[in-house]
Amino acid sequence: MTELRLGKLKEAVDTWSSMVGKLQQLADGKAGGISASALAQQANGADWTGVNATVTRTFITNSSREFDHAAAEAKTIHGLLQDIHHDFAKHKTDLKTALADARAKNIRVHQDGSTEDAYVHSVGDGGNTDPVPQAELTAAAEKIGRILWEATETDRIAAKALRDIAKNKHGFDKGGPENLEAADKQQGKEAAAYWAKKIKEEDPGTWSDDELKRFNETLKNQRDNPGFTATLATRLSGEGTLEFWRELASPAGPPVEVDRAKMLAQVQDNLSMSLANATSSNAPGMDGWQREVIAAGDKQFPIREGLQGPYGYQIASSLMQKGKFDSDFLNDYGTSLIEFERKKGNDSVLGEPGDLWQTPFQLDYPPSDKPNDPVANFLDGLAHNPQAAVEFFDDSTSGKGLDEVNNLAYLSGAPEEGGGAVENPRKWPEGEDGKPAGYASLGHALESATLGYAYDDKTPEIPSLKGEDAIAAREERTALMGRVVDHYNTADQIDGQPGMRDSLARMASGHVDSLTYSVAGFGTSAKEAEMTGERVLFGLKENGLEDFGKNDSAFFLRALASDQDSYNTVSAAQQIYGSSIMAAQGDNQTDALDAGLYSVKVHGILDDGRFEAIGKEFQDDETAKNEELEKAAEWRNFAGSAVTGVAVGVGTALAVPTGGAALIAVPIAIETLGGAAETAWATNTMDWLEEREYDNSAESARGIAEAQRVGEHTATTPIMNYADSQGLSAHEKTLLEERAYNHYIQGKDLPDTDAARGHG
Length: 760
Fold this sequence. Notes:
3% strand, 760 residues
């Protein structure tokens, strides 16, 4: 596409522009001269007799209208060609820019859009270039793929629009969509009408694989087109949509075969995104559709009358896991769902959610052993709408004779805001392993609510603080984060909710600025100076920071540090933020050093939590213990090198890989490159201790002490590098090291507990 020639297309645009003017002149004659309009007026005003009064006059007036139609059709063609030229020129420019950006980052892009590191790295290459992080390779491929998909969409819409015009071989139409957007909407409505009719007249469960594939392709192409999505939803109706998915996903007969199950997984995702788009379209009839879906939540949808089937809530939630649904709809639906569950299925007598939602029907694809839990699926839908998520966790359910209970308290067991523990928190359904399932979805929704962007956002950005509404939204997010910090304050509390830890680590990373501020200072002097504006280190007001409490913050960080992966994530974020906040102080050496010392204090909390957990976990296996300690030290080495020596930039956040494809926007005052997924120890076994045959001896103890010493050293690396850059004398650096060590020890001692798994 980079070699796409658009000259002929531009000539066609210009030609049709001229043609529109000429035909419009023939049609209405507004610029003077003979016109079809004048001819029709003369024909209608003439005194016709006999056959001429009917046949001839009708022929003349009909012919004159053809000129109007010809002018309208020419206008349609010109508008379409103009948009086609504009869009393809943009696609071509965007692709060239993306390819240039990739080359600048040493990324090779193949013909199929895949990417790889352009440099072959080998032992002894002299360190000429660093390997390209996998996150950057993936991001480049996705960006290029998106551009190519948009070009394909332009071609698809344009081709159909032009072919539709050419269908009439014997006359002119009254014109059609005057641009690609209008053509897309019209085509979407036509496609939706076709599929809605087919769904109503047939049993979708009996569709052939080819029919299912065609339906999926339509969904994929039209899922962001309100003309299609709202038309499909409203023509099916709310209950009809639920009935359709039950029939398609769980038809009568034998289990769905593997290949069809894979296709149904795609249909489920695309249908979910289509319905999300429809709820946000403000299209006529969508309010009624939403009310009908909610009202059908407590209704069962069996295969045959007289049998039991899945609840409407289960079907609806299975179609909410992708896309951004309307905020009001999500909260109204969520309230109805939680009220129903609390009344019917969270009681020792009536049964638990696992009993209420137990069903043999397959609604989620690909099939898995996870319970068919509509609350978990709803929370994943909530996780794509940050505004709805924070509102939902702040809200409560109290209808249908229930005591008022805050939603976060019910779902997580967190204390009511300003009150005690909730009396009857949710009992999450268990998976086949006997462990509660669905907490990962709760974590996803909390990520969205506290960070302000979807949990799986590929390009996360910290929301702006410009304007009163933005500031108020930030205050809501940090207030909710404060409740999270307060509740998840032990490793046992976190690990008792499988799947929550990764999300909590990302939340901590996204709020590392507030957490650092919360533990700053030995007493309250640092915070008081920040609040009065006497001294600004953290930008309390400018950055909308929240004081989560010194001890609560320390316990929270310590609990996260008990696990290697969450320690890695938070430790890297803290190192990045700590270095950037020093750089943000500019030429003020005193403030820069103090900011660095507060950061060292947080490192002390994290390191002590990690080392203590390792000691407990591997107390009978000294080799494994030393390897884990060495991993912690190696991580700190990476984090320090990733941010040391970079220049002050204009960025306010850095998207850092946190394992897998997840990204977190870490608040920073400088820009840097690198990521948690790229450390050497992440792909190579730490075997140097094995070679030395460490065991439960004094030599082993020295190995542990050395790893801890490395932790202390790397925690102070940024501040000591800053000292070097400022030209501090040897004596000044010695004094600074002593201060840093004291802050590090303060951090280690702050939680004031010897328990690796929790505190009493």
